[in-house]
Amino acid sequence: MTADRTAPVPLCDIQAQYRGLQDAIDAAVLRVVRSGQAILGPEVSSFEQEAAAYCQAAHAIGCASGTDALLLALHALDIGPGDEVIIPPFTFFATAGTVVRAGATPVFVDVDPHTFNIDPEQIEAKVTARTRAIMPVHLFGQCADMDPIWDVADKHGLYVIEDAAQSFGSEYNGKRCGTLGVISCFSFYPSKNLGTLGDAGMVTTNNAAIARKLAALRVHGSETKYYHKYLGWNARLDAVQAAILRVKLPHVEKWIEGRQAAAARYDALIESSKLSKLLHRPTARDYARHTYNQYVVRVSGGQRDGLMKHLKNENIGCDIYYPLCLHQQECLSNLGHRTGDFPVSEDAARAVLALPMFPEITEAQQKRVIDACAAFARSQQRLAAA
Ligand SMILES: *Cc1c(COP(=O)(O)O)cnc(C)c1O
């Protein structure tokens, strides 16, 4: 294979799916524009039914973003001032930001060094009389280890809310994301497993009363227009985004398979290039259907930043998810945490690197990525020998 040795490899190629589905997406957008049904309406409710079926959940409620999905979940369960919610510190900011926005207090539990997901063994020690919920994040497309999380939740009467923003289509022991908590929260941000061309999100639940409340909260807390039962806000899913999502949903399985095939190719390329010492491949657990929203390696020997610089010079997209843990964020400093409090998360923040990953990535592109990593490794060996 003669890969173009200089062509840029993007971290994520958002436009690839639009190119493949352009006629259908253009038609769907026009359909909404011409219908004049821009707020909720049939596109949103049809998408909700189709997405609920895919997630094997009884109810799906579309909303404006993954962040609103988390906030809706917390409000629907009346989690607020005085309450504590257990979350990992190694995740996207919204996981903690929404807990604080709801008026509750995030309580961090460190992550497993192999999966980067919340370490279930450490949860119970953080449960207090104020704890209301555990909010595991299924990071990078792999479910957190739910069995021991459900055990702690059952024992102490806590809700489990899934932050499934990165794991649409992922499974835990054959159960799909969307049913692993009392409420499950999804994002359709463009780079997620199912991504649209703007902001969008969704909550799912099997509980009919909670579904009704979520649907009301999304429209200012009203079940009857102008009569406000709850203190809600405007968190509606945009009808144009719903129409685009309806075009894309039937393809999501194929795209997930594309991600899994790409991950297997990276695994093999890292092995055959003898790079396993420099790049620790992602750990996929037996219980997980890993959907590889990201392919994140751990770079050993403190070489992450050097490798990232080298890849960028080679026009290869890569990024750090996440460079600063949530307990170290400036706006959460009032929680009183210090560097050193969650060593596994802090270590991950220093060592992880996301390599280019999208369903359409070619073997030639991946070979270029791994060849560039190998060239970096050789240059470091030469430096060490000199
Ligand atoms: C993307 C993401 C969110 C937020 O989703 P938005 O749609 O961007 O608001 C929340 N949690 C995690 C883990 C995410 O990756």
Automatic annotation (TrEMBL):
<dbReference type="Pfam" id="PF01041">
    <property type="entry name" value="DegT_DnrJ_EryC1"/>
</dbReference>
<keyword id="KW-0663">Pyridoxal phosphate</keyword>
<dbReference type="InterPro" id="IPR015422">
    <property type="entry name" value="PyrdxlP-dep_Trfase_small"/>
</dbReference>
<protein>
    <submittedName>
        <fullName>Pleiotropic regulatory protein</fullName>
    </submittedName>
</protein>
<comment type="similarity">
    <text>Belongs to the DegT/DnrJ/EryC1 family.</text>
</comment>
<dbReference type="GO" id="GO:0008483">
    <property type="term" value="F:transaminase activity"/>
</dbReference>
<dbReference type="GO" id="GO:0030170">
    <property type="term" value="F:pyridoxal phosphate binding"/>
</dbReference>
<dbReference type="InterPro" id="IPR015424">
    <property type="entry name" value="PyrdxlP-dep_Trfase"/>
</dbReference>
<dbReference type="GO" id="GO:0000271">
    <property type="term" value="P:polysaccharide biosynthetic process"/>
</dbReference>
<feature type="modified residue" description="N6-(pyridoxal phosphate)lysine">
    <location>
        <position position="192"/>
    </location>
</feature>
<feature type="active site" description="Proton acceptor">
    <location>
        <position position="192"/>
    </location>
</feature>
<dbReference type="InterPro" id="IPR000653">
    <property type="entry name" value="DegT/StrS_aminotransferase"/>
</dbReference>
<dbReference type="InterPro" id="IPR015421">
    <property type="entry name" value="PyrdxlP-dep_Trfase_major"/>
</dbReference>
